[in-house]
Design goal:
With 160 residues, the chain is of the alpha+beta class. The chain is built from five helices and four strands, in the order E-E-E-E-H-H-H-H-H. Helix 3 crosses helix 4. The protein starts with a strand and ends in an 11-residue tail after the last helix.
């Protein structure tokens, strides 16, 4: 005997329809259709699985899709976040930091972060790598501090 369950939901501008049918005593068929109000299909798929796996697979799908949605929802306001540092970026960071200023370190770090479209944490972490003392604007790391932090200093600065 075939049985079918259907549900529909609208999320934003997308209408989703999920139907689950048993085509035999041994398997389930899940059909998903997602479309805009215009009728444009943006999601379409079918899964066939054993009846006894239905609830477990449903929980698994729920977890995976929820986690994916949370990750996709975290748009960074830092457009260069997770982008590699280049030699040119390192040079700009170093020269900006070493330019004499009376600006406190935290304020200067935020300013540089805004200009470079990176987080203040990323800027602070990168400063020692380009040989700069992240606590005092305008100051290079001492040779001892550079060794301790594994950073390059002054003329020996390189890309890391």
């Amino acid at each position: 005997m075939t049985s079918t369950f259907q549900n529909e939901i609208k999320l934003g501008e997308v209408n989703y329809r999920l139907s689950v049918s048993t085509d035999s005593a041994e398997s389930l068929v899940l059909d998903l259709l997602g479309s805009h109000d215009s009728g444009e299909v943006i999601a379409d798929g079918r899964l066939r699985l054993p009846v006894e796996g239905g609830a477990t697979v449903g929980k698994l799908l729920s977890r995976v899709l929820s986690a994916h949605t949370r990750l996709r929802g975290r748009t960074s306001r830092y457009t260069n976040a997770n982008q590699p540092w280049t030699e040119a970026l390192d040079t700009t960071l170093r020269s900006t930091w070493l330019t004499p200023t009376d600006t406190p370190a935290s304020t200067l770090i935020r300013s540089i972060a805004d200009e470079m479209h990176r987080s203040p944490t990323a800027i602070r972490a990168r400063l020692p790598r380009v040989g700069c003392d992240p606590d005092i604007p305008g100051r290079e790391l001492s040779p001892a501090a550079a060794t301790l932090l594994g950073a390059m200093s002054g003329a020996t600065q390189g890309k890391t």
